[in-house]
Amino acid sequence: MDMTLDHLREKLLSWKGCELHKSAKPVLGEGNPAAEVMFIGEAPGQKEDELGRPFVGPAGQLLDELLHSIGLQRKDVYISNVVKYRPPGNRDPTPEEKEQCMPWLKMEIAIVRPRVICPLGRHALGHFFPTLSMTTVHGKPMTLTDAVTIFPIYHPAAALHNPSLRTALAEDFRRLRQFLDGTLAAVAIAKPLAP
Ligand code: URA
Question: Is residue 193 in a domain?
Fold first, then answer.
């Protein structure tokens, strides 16, 4: 039987492989199971933990606006996170928590098979390109494999805390539109990690 996103969601409910399960609700990604574009954030926040859905708080509202600005809606894309539970007090997830939760993200990627993966912020970027910084690569499509391009974008929450990033974030989305339309080419980067 092929694994589906519904199977994953069901299995995640009883998974105890990350200590965060003791203090938070599991939040799997959601969206189009055949999406061309997948967005990957860091970890659920308070609202996401309450509702059990990714990007439904303030950062999610900004993400929705940015998607609309380039003619996309949530139903067109798939949205997930590196870590599947809210870290207490919204602290950064630890390297151990990211590693423990990673199999879920890998299974989501294997099921959806997106052509473009947009890491939102440094935690998701670090999975694919551990040595690159968001400041230097945001808005730049980078070839991961023949089939997949990584398109790093600032995390929407960063722009909520630091309004000066807002323009850069909007520009990242405009460039994503150009890439999807075939008017912006990806560059090859040495030594990425496989998805
Ligand atoms: N920030 C994230 O990284 N993910 C969410 O789902 C919400 C806020």
Answer: no
pLDDT digits (tens, 9 = 90+) for 64-100: 999 999 999 999 999 999 999 999 999 999 999 999 9
Any atom of ligand 1 within 6 Å of the Cβ of 43: yes
Is 41 touching ligand 1 by the criterion CB < 6 Å?
yes
Residue 40 lies in a domain: yes
Query: How many A from CA of 84 to the centre of ligand 1?
Result: 10
Alpha carbon 75 to its chain's center: 15
Domain assignment of residue 115, given as a range = 5-188
In this structure, what CATH number is given to the domain that contains residue 110? 3.40.470.10
- pLDDT digits 0-9 by tens, 121-142: 999 999 999 999 999 999 999 9
Ligand 1, closest atom to CA 48? 6
132 within domain boundaries: yes
CB-based contacts of 37, cutoff 8 Å, min separation 6: 72, 76, 77, 78, 114, 115, 116, 117, 118, 176, 180
